[in-house]
Amino acid sequence: MRGKIGSRAAPAVAGATLLCALAVTPNASADPSGGGCRSTAYPVAGGAAHRGESGLIRIRKLLSSRLVKLAATLTAALALLLGTTGTANAAIYWDNPGVQLVNQASQQCLDVQGMVPGCMAGGTSWIRLESAQPDADGHARVQIITNGPSGSLCLGVSYGGPSQIQGSLGTRWETCEVGGNNWDQVWTMITAAPAQNVGNPAGLKHFINFHSDTYNVCLDGGIGVYGFPGGCVNDWQVWNIYTNKTSEPWRGY
Known about the structure:
Helices cover about 20% and strands about 35% of the residues. It has three helices and 15 strands.
């Protein structure tokens, strides 16, 4: 129905530059034509017979240095792509006041009634996000909470997802469970894109995915409210939250 976003191949020159960065020739450079590397060897006094061990050491140091820099660059790029809600102590307590979960695609809010239009203008559909389990790998694991007729209700994973989405699961509002027995109600918060200042008085605009690690589904607002199987892949699974609140240490059960 909605596929994953693909990625484009890097230009040939960029690929050649990366290969040249790993080359043992000291001053290798990318060929602008895309044909690979070209190099001019440094002159060595006394000819090839005098290159010996010192030359090998220089080459090894150069290669090692370039590999370390490349690894650091790739690690930073991966962290940027994945995103997190914080580093260590990434627990979330966005509950006083609450927040609105606005679907990126429909601009409707998650509510005990389902998806509600006009919620931002009407000031309705307030949700509380509270860490239900200790954060993991820099991601908060929260319960999505609203007020029901007789107390707080939490959004949990259940059976009965949309029939047209194979492998999907349903969701339902149910009595909140505490003390580590609430895995069907625990959602991992993942930053889908960096927060933006759009001038909203409530705070920064956050772009958040909610993923159930227990059932491997992503919270989707495209056909009611359900769990899309696998990872989070499109705007129907991105939820805008406007707040200046941040993460904090885990408070315990």
